[in-house]
Design brief:
It is built from five helices and nine strands. The chain is of the alpha/beta class. Strands 3-1-2-4-5-6-7-8-9 form a nine-stranded mixed sheet. It binds iron/sulfur cluster. Iron/sulfur cluster binds next to loops. The site of iron/sulfur cluster has 10 residues, from loops.
Amino acid sequence: MPTVVSPTPAREVAPRLRVNEIFHSLQGESRSAGFPTVFVRLTGCPLRCGYCDTEYAFHEGRWMAIDEILDQVAGHRTRYVTVTGGEPLAQRPCIELLAALCDRGFDVSLETSGAVAIGAVDPRVRIVMDVKTPASGEADRNLAGNLADLKPGDEVKFVICDRADYEWSRAFVECENLAQRCEVLFSPAWGRLAPRELGDWILADRLPVRLQVQLHKILWGEERGR
Ligand code: SF4
């Protein structure tokens, strides 16, 4: 009788992500601004916003297994973790990384451009999603379906470069009834619009949105890894 050789089971390959940097700093944006936070910046972004301040994340990075990322994050001994980019969701295993961070008990947020579907993101993750304004040069990349997937605790951010951007954003918030669905952040583009001016516009129009300044840039300028 011929010997029956059982097929070798396919080896499972642990998912890996290309990571640009992992660092410990103060959260500069969103509702958790000011809290010590570990940032996991993933490599790559399909967009090219005119004001982008993380172009170095488009291509630079090294491949890491999810367990290796979790160990590095844990080594910083903080409660808050933000997964950012680039556009973190451009790498599919990001979904798995987010769930694994939640499983480890971290308070996890995700910064995303709004150009990639958020529907598969673990509901324990607080999503901070951009709506790209006309002056970004990428407004046609906003994925309309993403608005329906936002939870009440999520945040939507408009980076505003000028008055035309402001008026466009105000109309968007009103038209989508956005302030009733989640938290809305209006953030002046660094070096392009004075925060005070944006604050005056918000007050004059009595908009139900939060003015957000980039705390990390006030503290450290454009220093990398801050
Ligand atoms: S989505 Fe973010 S990382 Fe990508 S180009 Fe725009 S600002 Fe830069």
